[in-house]
Amino acid sequence: MFKSIPESLNRIVILTGAGVSAESGIQTFRGADGLWENHRLEDVAMPEAFARDPLLVQRFYNERRRQLTSASTKPNAAHLALAKLESAFDGNVLLVTQNIDNLHERAGSKHLIHMHGELMKARCIACGETSPLCAASGIDIDPSTNCRQCARTGTLRPHIVWFGEIPLQMDDIYHALASADLFISIGTSGNVYPAAGFVDAANQSGATTVELNLEASATRGAFKYHYDGAATTLVPAFVDAVLQRNASDRPQ
Ligand code: APR
Questions:
Q1: What contacts 128, CB < 8 A, 6 or more positions away?
Q2: To test ligand 1's pocket by mutation, which of 16, 189, 220, 228 has the most ligand atoms within 8 angstroms of CB?
Q3: Residue 116 annotated as catalytic
Q4: What value does the mean pLDDT of the chain take?
Q5: Residue 96's closest CA among 250, 199, 245?
Q6: How far is the CA of 71 from the centre of ligand 1 (A)?
Q7: How far, in Å, CA of 166 to CA of 87, rounded?
Q8: Which one from 116, 159, 175, 226 is the annotated catalytic residue?
Q9: pLDDT at 246
Q10: In terms of Cα–Cα distance, which of 25, 32, 215, 184 is closest to 97?
Q11: Pairwise CA distance, residues 163 & 160, whole Å
Q12: Is residue 174 classed exposed, middle or buried when 0-12, 13-18 and 19+ CB atoms within 10 A define those classes?
């Protein structure tokens, strides 16, 4: 089925978007109504929105954390397959996610970059410190929450990269793309840069580029191969095909 897997594979870079978490019950950003959990992105995912109405924005992300930490929200077969790839593959696997949920970590992925930040972390505007939000410390951020580093109150915001802000660890990502021999994009619409441009960087470095998505993304034309379908169907099958190729490449 997957004729796209190159010979002698060593370095794999994977990019995931909201589509990889959709089957875990987490809504994607550009659903049919163009809203994200009944909010316009400009009302909850921009620094201007936070400046305009910090309480609305804090409440929005507090609600997202409750959803993420609820018993019904779990890693799905796609998250688990990507963690299996990282642990079973002989070469190097880097997983770059645009997602702010922690389902990749909970599935077992370790070599992971959250380029748009993390829902389960807070950042202090005053001292810059980021701190984990967990059930023990409380998962909400509100005006009375104090920074554990500088002890100020009212200075915490979600550790999330909003529109107009700089994504995280971009140098590490481009360094990995420059030496990748396989780049796989999973569950992203290709609407938001710089992530949408990673396929171009991968093509320039001679990597084989593959899109696994429910439907054609905005950057479909830049991929050498593409497969349409649900992540929980496509990703486990693709990972098994890569691991079979990896096993056949090993000296007998
Ligand atoms: N399996 C595979 N793909 C899916 C599935 C699924 N079950 N469900 C949805 N998709 C695909 C959709 O077809 C769409 O192309 O996932 C993609 C989700 O696109 P978006 O909602 O735009 O999410 P994403 O691409 O991750 O957005 C990128 O935009 O809003 C900002 O910072 C936010 O990280 C986000 C960035």
A1: none
A2: 189
A3: yes
A4: 94
A5: 199
A6: 23
A7: 30
A8: 116
A9: 85
A10: 184
A11: 10
A12: middle
| Radius of gyration from C-alpha coordinates of the chain | 19
1 confidence band (pLDDT: 50, 70, 90): low
Please check whether residue 110 is in contact with residue 86, taking contact to mean a CB–CB distance below 8 angstroms. yes
Residue that has been written with the tokens 């079979």 in this structure:
244
Strands 117-124, 130-132: pairing is antiparallel
Contact between 212 and 187 (Cβ < 8 Å): yes
In 10 A of CB 70, how many CB atoms? 10
158 Cβ inside 6 Å of ligand 1 = no
Count of CB atoms within 10 A of residue 206's CB?
Answer: 11
- Ligand 1 site, residue 26, Cβ cutoff 6 A: no
- Give the C-alpha separation, 54 to 176, whole Å: 36
Token pair belonging to 183: 């780049």
Q: Which two tokens stand for residue 16?
A: 């995931």
pLDDT at 252 over 90: no
Quick one: tokens of 57? Answer: 């924005």
pLDDT, position 143? 85
Cβ–ligand 1 contact at 109 (below 6 Å)? no
Query: Strand pairing partners for 210?
Result: 184, 225
Strand partners, 40: none
| Element containing residue 227 per DSSP (H, E) | strand 225-228
Does the pLDDT at position 85 exceed 80?
yes
